[in-house]
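Escalated from tier 1: EPU holo job.
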Amino acid sequence: MDKILIHGGQPLSGSIKISGSKNSALPILAATLLTREPCVIHRVPDLSDTNYMLQILMHLGAEVERASGTVTIKAEKVNSVAPYEVVRKMRASVCVLGPLLGRCKEATVSLPGGCVIGDRPIDLHLKGFESLGAAVRVENGNVKVFAPKLTGAIANMCGKFGPTVLGTDNVMMAAVLAKGVTVIEGAAAEPEVCDLANFLNKMGASIEGAGSRRIIIEGVKELHGAEHDIIPDRIETGTFMVAGAICGKGVTLNRVQPEHVSSVATALSESGFNIESTSSSITVSPNGAVLRPLELTTEPYPGFPTDMQAQMCALLSTTEGKSVITESVFPQRYMHVAELKRMGAHMQIEGASAIIQGVERLLGAPVMASDLRASAALVLAGLKADGVTEVRRVYHIDRGYEHLDEKLRELGAHIERVKE
Ligand code: EPU
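Tier 2 regenerated the structure:
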Protein backbone atom coordinates (compact mmCIF):
# COMPACT_ATOMS: atom_id res chain seq x y z
CA MET A 1 0.00 0.00 0.00
CA ASP A 2 1.28 3.47 -0.83
CA LYS A 3 1.71 6.39 1.52
CA ILE A 4 2.39 10.03 0.78
CA LEU A 5 5.27 11.90 2.39
CA ILE A 6 5.19 15.68 2.47
CA HIS A 7 8.04 17.92 3.56
CA GLY A 8 6.00 20.97 4.53
CA GLY A 9 6.70 24.64 4.23
CA GLN A 10 7.60 24.86 0.52
CA PRO A 11 5.98 27.81 -1.20
CA LEU A 12 3.81 26.82 -4.18
CA SER A 13 3.71 28.69 -7.47
CA GLY A 14 3.04 28.09 -11.16
CA SER A 15 0.12 26.52 -12.94
CA ILE A 16 -1.58 23.16 -13.44
CA LYS A 17 -4.53 21.80 -15.40
CA ILE A 18 -7.63 20.61 -13.63
CA SER A 19 -9.07 17.19 -14.62
CA GLY A 20 -12.59 16.24 -15.63
CA SER A 21 -15.12 15.98 -12.82
CA LYS A 22 -15.40 12.66 -10.99
CA ASN A 23 -18.95 13.35 -9.87
CA SER A 24 -20.03 14.23 -13.40
CA ALA A 25 -18.24 11.31 -14.98
CA LEU A 26 -19.83 8.65 -12.73
CA PRO A 27 -23.51 9.26 -13.62
CA ILE A 28 -22.65 10.11 -17.24
CA LEU A 29 -20.86 6.78 -17.66
CA ALA A 30 -23.90 5.08 -16.10
CA ALA A 31 -26.21 6.97 -18.50
CA THR A 32 -24.56 5.29 -21.50
CA LEU A 33 -26.56 2.18 -20.48
CA LEU A 34 -29.64 3.97 -21.82
CA THR A 35 -28.74 3.32 -25.47
CA ARG A 36 -27.56 0.43 -27.64
CA GLU A 37 -25.44 2.83 -29.67
CA PRO A 38 -21.84 3.79 -28.83
CA CYS A 39 -21.17 6.84 -26.68
CA VAL A 40 -17.84 8.65 -26.57
CA ILE A 41 -16.97 10.48 -23.38
CA HIS A 42 -13.94 12.74 -23.20
CA ARG A 43 -12.03 13.97 -20.16
CA VAL A 44 -12.96 11.03 -17.98
CA PRO A 45 -10.51 11.30 -15.08
CA ASP A 46 -8.34 8.24 -14.46
CA LEU A 47 -9.45 7.44 -10.92
CA SER A 48 -10.28 4.29 -9.07
CA ASP A 49 -13.95 5.40 -8.85
CA THR A 50 -14.30 5.88 -12.62
CA ASN A 51 -12.54 2.56 -13.14
CA TYR A 52 -14.99 0.84 -10.76
CA MET A 53 -17.86 2.34 -12.76
CA LEU A 54 -16.39 1.01 -16.01
CA GLN A 55 -16.04 -2.44 -14.42
CA ILE A 56 -19.71 -2.31 -13.40
CA LEU A 57 -20.74 -1.33 -16.94
CA MET A 58 -18.71 -4.25 -18.34
CA HIS A 59 -20.32 -6.59 -15.84
CA LEU A 60 -23.71 -5.36 -17.06
CA GLY A 61 -22.75 -6.28 -20.63
CA ALA A 62 -21.27 -3.07 -22.06
CA GLU A 63 -18.17 -3.02 -24.24
CA VAL A 64 -15.70 -0.44 -22.95
CA GLU A 65 -12.61 1.00 -24.62
CA ARG A 66 -10.38 3.49 -22.91
CA ALA A 67 -7.70 5.57 -24.62
CA SER A 68 -6.22 8.06 -22.17
CA GLY A 69 -9.07 10.36 -21.12
CA THR A 70 -11.55 9.17 -23.76
CA VAL A 71 -13.88 6.30 -23.06
CA THR A 72 -16.08 4.64 -25.67
CA ILE A 73 -18.96 2.55 -24.37
CA LYS A 74 -21.33 0.41 -26.33
CA ALA A 75 -24.11 -1.21 -24.34
CA GLU A 76 -25.77 -3.14 -27.14
CA LYS A 77 -27.19 -5.67 -24.71
CA VAL A 78 -27.45 -5.19 -20.97
CA ASN A 79 -28.42 -7.36 -18.07
CA SER A 80 -30.08 -5.62 -15.16
CA VAL A 81 -28.36 -7.17 -12.15
CA ALA A 82 -25.37 -5.58 -10.40
CA PRO A 83 -24.34 -7.87 -7.51
CA TYR A 84 -22.50 -7.00 -4.32
CA GLU A 85 -19.09 -8.11 -5.65
CA VAL A 86 -19.15 -5.50 -8.39
CA VAL A 87 -20.81 -2.58 -6.60
CA ARG A 88 -19.52 -2.85 -3.04
CA LYS A 89 -16.39 -0.78 -3.63
CA MET A 90 -18.22 2.40 -4.50
CA ARG A 91 -21.35 3.95 -3.11
CA ALA A 92 -21.99 5.85 -6.34
CA SER A 93 -22.64 2.50 -8.07
CA VAL A 94 -26.22 3.18 -7.07
CA CYS A 95 -26.53 5.49 -10.08
CA VAL A 96 -26.86 2.54 -12.45
CA LEU A 97 -30.34 1.94 -10.96
CA GLY A 98 -32.00 4.79 -12.91
CA PRO A 99 -30.64 3.95 -16.37
CA LEU A 100 -31.25 0.20 -15.90
CA LEU A 101 -34.82 0.88 -14.81
CA GLY A 102 -35.29 3.23 -17.79
CA ARG A 103 -33.91 0.77 -20.33
CA CYS A 104 -34.80 -2.68 -18.95
CA LYS A 105 -37.79 -1.63 -16.81
CA GLU A 106 -36.15 -3.50 -13.98
CA ALA A 107 -32.92 -3.40 -12.02
CA THR A 108 -31.38 -5.24 -9.10
CA VAL A 109 -28.45 -3.55 -7.43
CA SER A 110 -26.80 -4.41 -4.15
CA LEU A 111 -27.67 -1.75 -1.56
CA PRO A 112 -24.83 0.61 -0.68
CA GLY A 113 -23.58 0.14 2.86
CA GLY A 114 -22.78 2.82 5.41
CA CYS A 115 -20.11 5.39 4.79
CA VAL A 116 -17.76 7.25 7.09
CA ILE A 117 -19.26 10.59 6.11
CA GLY A 118 -22.76 9.64 7.28
CA ASP A 119 -25.65 7.16 6.88
CA ARG A 120 -26.28 8.01 3.24
CA PRO A 121 -29.70 6.41 2.68
CA ILE A 122 -31.27 6.14 -0.80
CA ASP A 123 -34.91 6.48 0.27
CA LEU A 124 -35.44 9.56 -1.93
CA HIS A 125 -34.12 7.73 -5.02
CA LEU A 126 -36.54 4.87 -4.34
CA LYS A 127 -39.52 7.16 -3.69
CA GLY A 128 -38.73 8.89 -6.98
CA PHE A 129 -38.81 5.56 -8.84
CA GLU A 130 -42.11 4.71 -7.12
CA SER A 131 -43.58 8.01 -8.31
CA LEU A 132 -42.84 6.86 -11.88
CA GLY A 133 -44.80 3.67 -11.24
CA ALA A 134 -42.00 1.31 -10.21
CA ALA A 135 -42.33 -1.22 -7.43
CA VAL A 136 -39.41 -1.35 -5.02
CA ARG A 137 -38.34 -4.34 -2.96
CA VAL A 138 -35.37 -4.62 -0.66
CA GLU A 139 -34.30 -8.20 -0.01
CA ASN A 140 -31.04 -10.01 0.80
CA GLY A 141 -29.11 -6.77 0.74
CA ASN A 142 -30.31 -5.92 -2.76
CA VAL A 143 -32.71 -3.32 -3.97
CA LYS A 144 -34.94 -4.46 -6.79
CA VAL A 145 -36.98 -1.97 -8.81
CA PHE A 146 -39.30 -3.01 -11.58
CA ALA A 147 -42.08 -1.47 -13.61
CA PRO A 148 -43.83 -2.98 -16.62
CA LYS A 149 -44.06 0.62 -17.75
CA LEU A 150 -42.78 3.92 -16.42
CA THR A 151 -45.13 6.88 -16.47
CA GLY A 152 -44.22 10.55 -16.07
CA ALA A 153 -45.14 11.97 -12.65
CA ILE A 154 -44.11 14.50 -10.03
CA ALA A 155 -41.13 13.37 -7.93
CA ASN A 156 -39.68 15.31 -5.01
CA MET A 157 -35.95 14.93 -4.45
CA CYS A 158 -35.56 17.17 -1.42
CA GLY A 159 -35.08 15.59 2.00
CA LYS A 160 -34.18 16.76 5.50
CA PHE A 161 -30.62 17.64 4.40
CA GLY A 162 -31.56 19.27 1.11
CA PRO A 163 -31.87 17.89 -2.42
CA THR A 164 -30.14 14.65 -3.30
CA VAL A 165 -27.64 14.87 -6.17
CA LEU A 166 -27.46 11.22 -7.23
CA GLY A 167 -31.19 10.81 -6.48
CA THR A 168 -31.96 13.63 -8.93
CA ASP A 169 -29.62 11.99 -11.46
CA ASN A 170 -31.19 8.58 -10.98
CA VAL A 171 -34.79 9.73 -11.39
CA MET A 172 -33.84 11.89 -14.38
CA MET A 173 -32.18 8.87 -16.04
CA ALA A 174 -35.24 6.67 -15.44
CA ALA A 175 -37.69 9.38 -16.55
CA VAL A 176 -36.09 10.10 -19.94
CA LEU A 177 -37.61 6.87 -21.29
CA ALA A 178 -40.91 7.08 -19.32
CA LYS A 179 -44.22 7.80 -21.03
CA GLY A 180 -45.26 11.40 -20.55
CA VAL A 181 -43.88 14.29 -18.54
CA THR A 182 -41.96 14.01 -15.27
CA VAL A 183 -41.43 17.01 -13.04
CA ILE A 184 -38.63 16.73 -10.49
CA GLU A 185 -39.34 19.17 -7.68
CA GLY A 186 -36.70 20.03 -5.10
CA ALA A 187 -34.07 18.94 -7.62
CA ALA A 188 -30.35 19.21 -6.93
CA ALA A 189 -28.88 22.09 -8.96
CA GLU A 190 -25.21 21.03 -8.88
CA PRO A 191 -23.23 21.59 -12.11
CA GLU A 192 -22.81 17.80 -12.35
CA VAL A 193 -26.61 17.43 -12.64
CA CYS A 194 -26.57 19.95 -15.52
CA ASP A 195 -23.71 18.09 -17.18
CA LEU A 196 -25.69 14.85 -17.03
CA ALA A 197 -28.83 16.59 -18.40
CA ASN A 198 -26.77 18.07 -21.26
CA PHE A 199 -25.41 14.64 -22.11
CA LEU A 200 -28.88 13.05 -21.97
CA ASN A 201 -30.23 15.80 -24.26
CA LYS A 202 -27.41 15.05 -26.72
CA MET A 203 -28.63 11.43 -26.63
CA GLY A 204 -32.09 12.62 -27.69
CA ALA A 205 -33.74 13.21 -24.30
CA SER A 206 -35.94 16.23 -23.66
CA ILE A 207 -34.92 17.81 -20.35
CA GLU A 208 -35.43 21.41 -19.30
CA GLY A 209 -34.60 23.27 -16.11
CA ALA A 210 -31.48 21.37 -15.00
CA GLY A 211 -29.57 23.71 -12.71
CA SER A 212 -32.80 24.92 -11.09
CA ARG A 213 -34.94 23.31 -8.38
CA ARG A 214 -37.51 22.10 -10.97
CA ILE A 215 -36.49 19.82 -13.83
CA ILE A 216 -39.03 18.93 -16.52
CA ILE A 217 -38.49 15.79 -18.56
CA GLU A 218 -40.61 14.78 -21.49
CA GLY A 219 -40.18 11.07 -22.02
CA VAL A 220 -38.98 9.87 -25.44
CA LYS A 221 -39.18 6.41 -27.05
CA GLU A 222 -35.45 5.81 -27.34
CA LEU A 223 -32.05 7.44 -27.02
CA HIS A 224 -29.10 7.30 -29.39
CA GLY A 225 -25.32 7.48 -29.02
CA ALA A 226 -23.63 10.80 -28.26
CA GLU A 227 -20.25 12.39 -27.66
CA HIS A 228 -19.55 14.53 -24.62
CA ASP A 229 -16.79 16.37 -22.73
CA ILE A 230 -16.96 16.08 -18.94
CA ILE A 231 -16.91 19.47 -17.13
CA PRO A 232 -13.85 20.40 -15.03
CA ASP A 233 -13.82 19.05 -11.49
CA ARG A 234 -14.94 21.90 -9.24
CA ILE A 235 -13.85 20.11 -6.06
CA GLU A 236 -10.37 19.44 -7.43
CA THR A 237 -10.34 23.12 -8.44
CA GLY A 238 -11.38 24.18 -4.94
CA THR A 239 -8.82 21.87 -3.33
CA PHE A 240 -6.00 23.41 -5.37
CA MET A 241 -7.36 26.89 -4.62
CA VAL A 242 -6.90 26.06 -0.95
CA ALA A 243 -3.41 24.70 -1.70
CA GLY A 244 -2.63 28.03 -3.35
CA ALA A 245 -3.99 29.84 -0.30
CA ILE A 246 -2.36 27.67 2.36
CA CYS A 247 1.19 28.15 1.10
CA GLY A 248 1.07 29.72 -2.33
CA LYS A 249 2.93 32.62 -3.86
CA GLY A 250 0.56 32.65 -6.83
CA VAL A 251 -1.02 29.46 -8.11
CA THR A 252 -2.96 29.35 -11.39
CA LEU A 253 -5.47 26.64 -12.21
CA ASN A 254 -6.27 26.17 -15.89
CA ARG A 255 -9.17 24.41 -17.60
CA VAL A 256 -11.64 25.37 -14.87
CA GLN A 257 -15.14 26.87 -14.78
CA PRO A 258 -14.71 29.73 -12.31
CA GLU A 259 -18.48 30.17 -11.80
CA HIS A 260 -18.65 26.64 -10.35
CA VAL A 261 -16.32 27.58 -7.49
CA SER A 262 -17.61 31.06 -6.75
CA SER A 263 -18.57 30.17 -3.15
CA VAL A 264 -15.00 28.94 -2.53
CA ALA A 265 -13.56 32.06 -4.18
CA THR A 266 -15.80 34.28 -2.02
CA ALA A 267 -14.70 32.49 1.16
CA LEU A 268 -11.01 32.77 0.26
CA SER A 269 -11.25 36.44 -0.65
CA GLU A 270 -13.16 37.16 2.60
CA SER A 271 -10.29 35.50 4.41
CA GLY A 272 -7.83 37.83 2.67
CA PHE A 273 -6.57 36.15 -0.52
CA ASN A 274 -6.48 37.59 -4.01
CA ILE A 275 -8.58 35.66 -6.50
CA GLU A 276 -8.36 36.53 -10.17
CA SER A 277 -10.30 34.68 -12.86
CA THR A 278 -10.50 34.53 -16.62
CA SER A 279 -13.18 32.52 -18.43
CA SER A 280 -11.19 29.30 -17.86
CA SER A 281 -8.58 29.96 -15.18
CA ILE A 282 -8.28 31.04 -11.57
CA THR A 283 -5.25 32.44 -9.79
CA VAL A 284 -5.00 32.44 -6.00
CA SER A 285 -2.32 34.54 -4.33
CA PRO A 286 -1.67 36.21 -0.99
CA ASN A 287 -2.41 39.93 -0.93
CA GLY A 288 -0.25 40.76 2.06
CA ALA A 289 -3.26 41.40 4.32
CA VAL A 290 -3.62 39.76 7.72
CA LEU A 291 -5.77 36.69 7.16
CA ARG A 292 -9.21 36.64 8.71
CA PRO A 293 -11.06 33.68 10.29
CA LEU A 294 -14.38 32.66 8.70
CA GLU A 295 -17.86 31.45 9.55
CA LEU A 296 -19.04 29.07 6.88
CA THR A 297 -21.97 26.72 6.42
CA THR A 298 -21.95 23.98 3.81
CA GLU A 299 -25.01 23.99 1.60
CA PRO A 300 -26.27 22.53 -1.64
CA TYR A 301 -24.97 24.29 -4.77
CA PRO A 302 -24.49 27.21 -5.24
CA GLY A 303 -23.69 27.32 -1.51
CA PHE A 304 -20.32 26.34 -0.05
CA PRO A 305 -19.79 22.65 -0.95
CA THR A 306 -19.64 19.94 1.70
CA ASP A 307 -16.90 18.37 -0.45
CA MET A 308 -14.69 21.40 0.40
CA GLN A 309 -15.38 21.46 4.14
CA ALA A 310 -12.41 19.32 5.23
CA GLN A 311 -9.96 21.29 3.06
CA MET A 312 -11.26 24.55 4.53
CA CYS A 313 -10.78 23.16 8.07
CA ALA A 314 -7.11 22.58 7.14
CA LEU A 315 -6.71 26.15 5.90
CA LEU A 316 -8.47 27.77 8.84
CA SER A 317 -6.52 25.70 11.35
CA THR A 318 -3.63 28.16 10.91
CA THR A 319 -5.67 31.34 10.42
CA GLU A 320 -5.48 33.44 13.56
CA GLY A 321 -8.78 33.80 15.41
CA LYS A 322 -11.87 31.65 15.76
CA SER A 323 -13.49 30.11 12.70
CA VAL A 324 -16.71 28.12 12.70
CA ILE A 325 -17.67 25.67 9.96
CA THR A 326 -21.12 24.09 10.06
CA GLU A 327 -22.09 21.04 8.01
CA SER A 328 -25.70 21.17 6.85
CA VAL A 329 -25.38 18.38 4.24
CA PHE A 330 -23.50 15.60 6.10
CA PRO A 331 -23.57 16.67 9.78
CA GLN A 332 -21.10 13.95 10.83
CA ARG A 333 -18.48 14.55 8.16
CA TYR A 334 -15.62 15.39 10.53
CA MET A 335 -13.29 12.38 10.46
CA HIS A 336 -10.37 14.63 9.49
CA VAL A 337 -10.63 16.69 12.70
CA ALA A 338 -8.99 14.15 15.00
CA GLU A 339 -6.10 13.74 12.52
CA LEU A 340 -5.64 17.51 12.10
CA LYS A 341 -5.51 17.78 15.90
CA ARG A 342 -2.64 15.29 15.86
CA MET A 343 -0.78 17.85 13.74
CA GLY A 344 -1.36 20.53 16.36
CA ALA A 345 -4.65 22.06 15.17
CA HIS A 346 -7.00 23.39 17.84
CA MET A 347 -10.49 22.39 16.87
CA GLN A 348 -13.49 20.73 18.40
CA ILE A 349 -16.81 19.47 17.18
CA GLU A 350 -20.01 20.91 18.65
CA GLY A 351 -23.07 19.29 17.07
CA ALA A 352 -22.69 19.78 13.31
CA SER A 353 -20.05 22.50 13.69
CA ALA A 354 -16.27 22.53 13.86
CA ILE A 355 -14.97 25.30 16.09
CA ILE A 356 -11.45 26.14 15.00
CA GLN A 357 -9.01 28.27 16.94
CA GLY A 358 -6.22 29.16 14.53
CA VAL A 359 -2.71 28.16 15.66
CA GLU A 360 0.57 29.67 14.46
CA ARG A 361 1.90 26.45 13.02
CA LEU A 362 1.16 22.79 12.44
CA LEU A 363 3.68 20.02 12.98
CA GLY A 364 4.12 17.13 10.57
CA ALA A 365 2.91 13.74 11.86
CA PRO A 366 1.87 10.32 10.60
CA VAL A 367 -1.85 10.62 9.83
CA MET A 368 -4.52 8.31 8.48
CA ALA A 369 -6.83 9.20 5.61
CA SER A 370 -10.44 8.19 6.34
CA ASP A 371 -12.23 9.28 3.17
CA LEU A 372 -11.54 11.17 0.00
CA ARG A 373 -11.91 14.79 1.07
CA ALA A 374 -10.49 14.14 4.54
CA SER A 375 -7.35 12.83 2.82
CA ALA A 376 -7.09 15.98 0.74
CA ALA A 377 -7.32 18.05 3.94
CA LEU A 378 -4.44 16.09 5.49
CA VAL A 379 -2.28 16.64 2.41
CA LEU A 380 -3.05 20.37 2.51
CA ALA A 381 -2.21 20.53 6.21
CA GLY A 382 1.03 18.65 5.45
CA LEU A 383 1.99 21.29 2.86
CA LYS A 384 1.77 23.92 5.57
CA ALA A 385 3.19 21.95 8.52
CA ASP A 386 6.77 22.06 9.75
CA GLY A 387 8.58 18.78 9.19
CA VAL A 388 7.34 15.61 7.54
CA THR A 389 3.73 14.49 7.29
CA GLU A 390 3.00 10.91 6.34
CA VAL A 391 -0.46 10.32 4.94
CA ARG A 392 -1.51 6.68 5.01
CA ARG A 393 -4.40 4.92 3.22
CA VAL A 394 -3.69 6.86 0.08
CA TYR A 395 -6.21 4.74 -1.85
CA HIS A 396 -8.85 7.20 -0.64
CA ILE A 397 -7.07 9.97 -2.57
CA ASP A 398 -6.84 7.83 -5.70
CA ARG A 399 -10.63 7.54 -5.74
CA GLY A 400 -11.08 11.17 -6.58
CA TYR A 401 -7.88 13.12 -7.37
CA GLU A 402 -6.06 12.43 -10.62
CA HIS A 403 -2.29 12.59 -9.99
CA LEU A 404 -2.62 14.79 -6.88
CA ASP A 405 1.00 14.31 -5.84
CA GLU A 406 2.34 14.96 -9.36
CA LYS A 407 0.30 18.13 -9.71
CA LEU A 408 1.48 19.42 -6.33
CA ARG A 409 5.07 18.62 -7.30
CA GLU A 410 4.59 20.68 -10.47
CA LEU A 411 3.69 23.57 -8.19
CA GLY A 412 6.87 23.09 -6.14
CA ALA A 413 5.66 20.95 -3.24
CA HIS A 414 8.06 18.43 -1.74
CA ILE A 415 5.77 15.47 -1.87
CA GLU A 416 6.46 11.86 -2.75
CA ARG A 417 4.57 8.63 -2.91
CA VAL A 418 6.28 5.63 -1.42
CA LYS A 419 5.41 2.00 -0.71
CA GLU A 420 4.63 1.31 2.95
N1 EPU B 1 -30.07 11.80 1.50
C1 EPU B 1 -31.21 11.24 2.04
N2 EPU B 1 -31.90 10.34 1.28
C2 EPU B 1 -31.51 9.98 0.02
C3 EPU B 1 -30.35 10.56 -0.52
C4 EPU B 1 -29.64 11.47 0.25
O1 EPU B 1 -31.58 11.53 3.16
O2 EPU B 1 -32.22 9.16 -0.61
C5 EPU B 1 -29.31 12.79 2.29
C6 EPU B 1 -27.86 12.38 2.51
O3 EPU B 1 -27.71 11.49 3.60
C7 EPU B 1 -27.19 13.73 2.71
C8 EPU B 1 -27.95 14.64 1.76
O4 EPU B 1 -29.21 13.98 1.52
O5 EPU B 1 -27.38 14.17 4.03
C9 EPU B 1 -27.27 14.90 0.43
O6 EPU B 1 -26.82 13.69 -0.14
P1 EPU B 1 -26.76 13.44 -1.69
O7 EPU B 1 -27.73 12.38 -2.07
O8 EPU B 1 -26.87 14.74 -2.43
O9 EPU B 1 -25.30 12.86 -1.89
P2 EPU B 1 -24.88 11.92 -3.06
O10 EPU B 1 -25.66 12.26 -4.26
O11 EPU B 1 -24.88 10.52 -2.61
C10 EPU B 1 -23.04 13.43 -4.11
C11 EPU B 1 -21.55 13.38 -4.30
C12 EPU B 1 -20.87 13.56 -2.96
C13 EPU B 1 -21.29 14.90 -2.37
C14 EPU B 1 -22.83 14.96 -2.26
C15 EPU B 1 -23.34 16.30 -1.78
C16 EPU B 1 -21.29 11.93 -6.20
C17 EPU B 1 -20.79 10.64 -6.74
N3 EPU B 1 -21.19 12.11 -4.89
O12 EPU B 1 -23.37 12.34 -3.27
O13 EPU B 1 -19.47 13.60 -3.24
O14 EPU B 1 -20.74 15.06 -1.09
O15 EPU B 1 -23.41 14.69 -3.55
O16 EPU B 1 -22.93 17.31 -2.63
O17 EPU B 1 -21.74 12.78 -6.95
C18 EPU B 1 -17.20 13.30 -2.82
O18 EPU B 1 -16.99 13.54 -4.02
O19 EPU B 1 -16.27 13.25 -1.97
C19 EPU B 1 -18.57 13.07 -2.37
C20 EPU B 1 -18.86 12.49 -1.22
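The chain has a mean pLDDT of 96.
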